[in-house]
Amino acid sequence: MKIFHLVTLILFFSITIVPGIYSHTPIAARTGMVVSSSQLASEAGIEIFRQGGNAVDAAVAVAYALAVTYPQAGNIGGGGFMLIRLSDGTVTAIDYRETAPLKATVDMYLDRKGEIIPDASLRGAKSAGVPGTVAGLSLALSQHGTMDLKTVLQPAINLARNGFSVSLGIIRDFQGLKDDFKKYPATAKIFWKQGIPYQLGDTLRQPDLAYTLEQIAAAGSDAFYRGPISDLIIKAMQRDGGLITRKDLAQYSPVIRQPLISTYRNYTIYTMPPPTSGGIILLGLLKALESDNLTELGHNSSSFIHLFSEISNCYFADRAFFMGDPDFVNVPVAGLISPEYAQNIRLSINTEHHTPGQEIFHGDSVWLAQYGAMLPESDETTHFSVVDRWGNAVSNTYTLNDSYGSYYVIEGAGFLMNNEMDDFSIKTGVPNMYGLVGGKANAIVPRKRMLSSMTPTIITKNGNLFLVLGSPGGSKIITSVCQVILNVIDHKMNIQDAVIAPRIHSQWLPDEVVIEPLGISHDVVKNLSSMGHIIRKGSFMGEVQAIQVDTEHGIVFGAIDLRHGNSAVSSY
């Protein structure tokens, strides 16, 4: 087994600012591979491979292990999306996004004057949607796995019961959030040792979480939604003002959806449909860019960044108006991802100057509605990609929304709850924590799924598995995934170079182009400014976990994204 883990950002970026001049060889294997945000979680997947499990078995093991070792985003108190491609070419999309509780109301986070109550949708029991992770993972395993829950949960149970050495990143998180965690006794109990901060080399044991995992292993998802774990959730909600009821838990169900399918050049793209906006925007961006020779434009040139950001702004404007849970609103998916609509957007772009955000409007509702049939998100989301020896693949993104979610741990159960209610449009036209503006399509309605930006994606070439990828990063998920795809297909980078190349982001509002702190030249910034762009230097974007498959030679290649010091590739 080979395990690779990021240790140095500065060294990494000092030699990769100009992709193509310095090339980095990705990790290679001939059998199974797991790329996740935790070395221990990646190892859990490999352990399942050794026992004969397939990619779905390993993915469920990885997801539960992340709930233990990566508490800022790995979860059983949140939700997400899983894309599965079997070796026979069948692709399935599982939506296990959280839902609004039955007691939720459209104005539940507004005061009497109609103003947003600070932090009401972000912190504590009332900010949580009904979790979907446990149900979603159980559905994936029952339909496409080969092992039982007890087997795939065992690595996570061991990690929770026996503990693991805390990383420097987790220690810094715990210390930085000390005052926030102390507001919630069950949270402080886990992440502070009797009031004393964790130190490097300390072991984090989570017996309550181990108990929860053992209950799920023994009784399946019923333990969480109808059994002893649900009792603990309801007790906590009733005590601390949360809205989730026993009926909410009992009625929760993941949804199997038809994946979105499109092409880019001679590749086929499979990605997630609503209630995530990620798939629509990704496919729209690719289609709108397809008529341009991006190789000639140059990687991260001012011409490319201008074109990419202007097209992105158009699709994010559509996101705010059209997109929401397809079980509650008619999302014109077929129109939004159509080549004709992409061409219209491309032709509307002023190639010489930036169009201000206030001058960009959503697409024509009538045109989009008539085009075709209607189909009935933190920076601390986490993604993992899995490929097994038979060619089955899983691309999974799930989240608590904000880092450590609502900061609210269910007492006795040991897991954090999400704060996904903030991903609804709390007030029309007012941005959420990611600066995303929403409208009526994403308003709060009981049992409705909140809009997301998660973009788990699988790409094939000539019918063969080619790329498996996704990322955390809030709204930056979409543009991060898109840029890695362009780096591989248009700029012919290997998967490691494609992942570590510098990124940019633009999302309509706020009206700016965000660039990473390293890698975009001063001349490019100057040119973009002269075209009317507001350039803001931000933090590192996303953490793409990607696997590239060379079917001809029977080799899989994994990449580590060093931006946040978490990526780990394991193979055997």
How many beta-strand segments? 20
What's the arrangement of strands in the largest beta sheet?
Answer: 1-20-3-11-12-4-5-8
Distance between the termini: 5 Å
> Low-confidence spans: pLDDT under 50, at least 5 residues?
1-21, 371-378
Largest sheet: 8 strands, antiparallel
Q: Number of helical segments?
A: 21
How much is the radius of gyration in Å? 22 Å
> Which term fits the overall shape?
globular
Q: What is the overall pLDDT average?
A: 92
Kindly state the percentage of residues in helix. Answer: 25-40%
Would you mind describing this structure in some detail?
- With about 575 residues, this protein is α+β, with helices and mostly antiparallel strands.
- It has a domain of about 260 residues.
- The chain has 21 helices and 20 strands.
- Strands 1-20-3-11-12-4-5-8 form an 8-stranded antiparallel sheet, with helices on one face. A 7-stranded antiparallel sheet has the order 2-19-18-14-13-10-9.
- A hairpin with a 5-residue loop joins β4 and β5.
What keyword list fits this structure?
572 residues; alpha+beta; eight-stranded antiparallel beta sheet; seven-stranded antiparallel beta sheet; disordered N terminus
Q: Concise description?
A:
The protein is α+β, with helices and mostly antiparallel strands and 572 residues long.
Per-chain topology:
Layout lengths: L1 E4 L3 H6 L12 E3 L3 E4 L2 H12 L4 H15 L9 E7 L5 E6 L36 H12 L4 H14 L1 E2 L2 H9 L1 H4 L3 H7 L11 E2 L2 H13 L2 H4 L2 H13 L5 H6 L3 E3 L2 E5 L2 E5 L6 H12 L4 H4 L4 H21 L10 H4 L2 H10 L16 H7 L10 E6 L5 E7 L57 E5 L2 E6 L6 H14 L5 H6 L3 E2 L7 E3 L6 H9 L4 E3 L8 E5 L4 E5 L8 E4 L1
Parallel strand pairs: 16-17
Antiparallel strand pairs: 1-20, 2-19, 3-11, 3-20, 4-5, 4-12, 5-8, 6-7, 9-10, 10-13, 11-12, 13-14, 14-18, 15-16, 18-19
Helix pairs in contact: 2-3, 2-5, 3-4, 3-5, 5-9, 13-15, 13-17, 13-19, 15-21
